[in-house]
Design brief:
496 residues, mainly beta, Pectate Lyase C-like, 2 domains, 29-stranded parallel beta sheet, Pectin_lyase_fold/virulence, glycosidase, PbH1, hydrolase
Length: 496
């Protein structure tokens, strides 16, 4: 006779060794050294999360997309002279149109229907680069078209490097809009082999980024001035796609981004940034979708991410150089987005030495056999930094390859540095997951455990391995369930 099994409709119980492996020393003490598990969310919990999200409304009220004068500067006009043959570089024509719009007090620089080849585009204040429906900006794959070198940030380290494909430095009221296509044209034949792995097209004997990356980090550690960190020609550090730098009032809206050399949208040290209704599809190495870095008051909404790396990765500088500036990413709202493929859906790190705080994620959908994790925190004792006040609600996770929620203090260099990271006050509410090896994978340090993690009304289905919880100071689960939808008999016994 079969007997009822506790597997059916059970609360996640971290006491059960067959369900979760964890360090009892690092987990909040409760019965059997287990984290607190409550049967139902209380009115107090709901009130608390409402207070968190009231702060999001305050942030949203500050984020305003820039407006532009009703003046158009069409790049095919006689005074600019762009040709839509997909071959002739329109770089000079676009530059002239941007300069004219800027001099006139602002307006739209219009890319009409057609295919326009171009090199680097540098935006100026009060200019909206409008890529019309049916238009494609096809970016050159010749590195010389991204010279001279510009002041940039590469993997969290400032240097003089190749110009991003679309760049702005210390500008205000700038935008890239429209229903057209931005095609970086990166492939395994041009930019991607510089990563130095076979997946990106690299073969033995080909140049790659490793030597320059190491040298840049050494120069940062030595305090070499940024202007003397020269990493353009001969360094093989790929340019970002869109990078506004030290800019205010930025809008990226409506465009489709394809085939990027490196990260797609990378606002650095910016304030008041809106990314809305963008479609990103690019599967090269380090093809992160949107990486706000040391930026504040950022809204990312209604965007589709289909990427070769993290969909969204919040950053604030790497190691010594990140601590030199010591500017966090803060007040970031992510909502109504869809994450298809990538290493992580919403990620904080790993270039996070300046810290991150006040991050709000809601109403997002994440699912793919090729999406590794839904929510991820990646750092180590070289990065350091404080990550705090991360609030997630109403997220649907269909399928991930590794873990639904992952926080790991052993990323990349691992625990070999002197700057312990801090992660605290993470609240996840109303998250459902359909399939994952692990529900949770949380690894802190014994001396510096992961801080408070709170899960409310979360459901993890299709989980095949125990969660890993090592050195976590406080984890509380309220009305959380695992594997309630597994194939069972009427008593909940697993069916073979």
């Amino acid at each position: 006779m079969r007997t009822p099994s506790p597997a059916r409709n059970r609360l996640i119980s971290l006491c059960c060794a067959t369900l979760v492996a964890f360090s009892a020393v690092a987990v909040t003490s409760a019965q059997n050294s287990a984290p607190a598990v409550s049967p139902a969310a209380s009115a107090a919990d709901s009130s608390l999360t409402a207070a968190y999200w009231a702060e999001a409304d305050v942030i949203l009220a500050r984020i305003q997309a820039p407006a532009f004068p009703a003046r158009d500067f069409v790049i095919t006009a006689a005074e600019f002279g762009a040709v839509a043959d997909g071959k002739t570089l329109a770089t000079a024509a676009i530059r002239k149109a941007i300069e004219a719009a800027h001099a006139a007090g602002g307006g739209r620089v219009v890319i009409p229907a057609g295919v326009f080849a171009t090199g680097a585009i540098h935006l100026k204040s009060n200019v909206n680069l409008h890529v019309s429906e049916g238009a494609t900006l096809a970016f050159s794959t010749d590195p010389k078209d991204y010279l001279p070198a510009v002041f940039t940030r590469w993997e969290g380290m400032e240097c003089m490097g190749y110009s991003p494909l679309i760049y702005a430095f210390e500008q205000e009221n700038i935008a890239v809009t429209g229903k057209g296509i931005l095609d970086g044209r990166a492939t395994t034949q041009n930019w991607w082999p510089w990563k130095g792995n076979a997946e990106g097209g690299w073969k033995k004997g080909m140049p790659h980024q490793a030597e320059a990356r190491k040298k840049l980090e050494e120069m940062c550690d030595a305090g070499v001035p940024v202007e003397k960190r020269l990493f353009a020609e001969g360094s093989y550090l790929r340019p970002m796609f869109i990078q506004p730098y030290r800019s205010k009032n930025v809008l990226i809206e409506g465009v489709t981004i394809l085939n990027s050399p490196m990260w797609e949208i990378h606002p650095v040290l910016c304030t008041n940034v809106t990314v809305r209704g963008v479609k990103i599809k690019t599967h090269g190495p380090n093809n992160d979708g949107c990486n706000p870095e040391s930026s504040k008051d950022v809204l990312i909404e209604d965007t589709i991410f289909d990427t070769g790396d993290d969909c969204i990765a919040i950053k604030s500088g790497r190691n010594t150089d990140g601590r030199r500036l010591n500017i966090p990413s803060e007040n970031i709202i992510i909502r109504n987005c869809k994450m298809v493929e990538g290493h992580g859906g919403v990620v904080i790190g790993s270039e996070i030495s300046g810290g991150a705080r006040n991050v709000f994620v809601e109403n997002c959908e994440m699912s793919s056999p090729e999406l590794d994790r839904a929510l991820r925190f990646k750092t180590n004792s070289h990065r350091g930094g404080t990550i705090e006040n991360v609030y997630v609600r109403n997220v649907k996770v269909g399928q991930v390859k590794q873990a639904v929620i992952l926080a790991d203090f052993f990323y990349e260099e691992g625990d070999t540095g002197k700057f312990d990271p801090i992660l605290r006050n993470v609240v996840v509410e109303n998250l459902t997951a359909g399939k994952a090896p692990h529900a949770l994978f949380l690894r802190g340090y014994a001396r510096t455990p992961i801080g408070s993690i709170k899960l409310i009304n979360c459901r993890f289905e299709g989980v095949t391995k125990p969660s890993v919880i090592s050195h976590v100071a406080s984890i509380e689960m309220i009305n959380c369930f695992e594997n309630t939808g597994a194939k069972t008999d009427e008593w909940g016994n697993p069916l073979k």
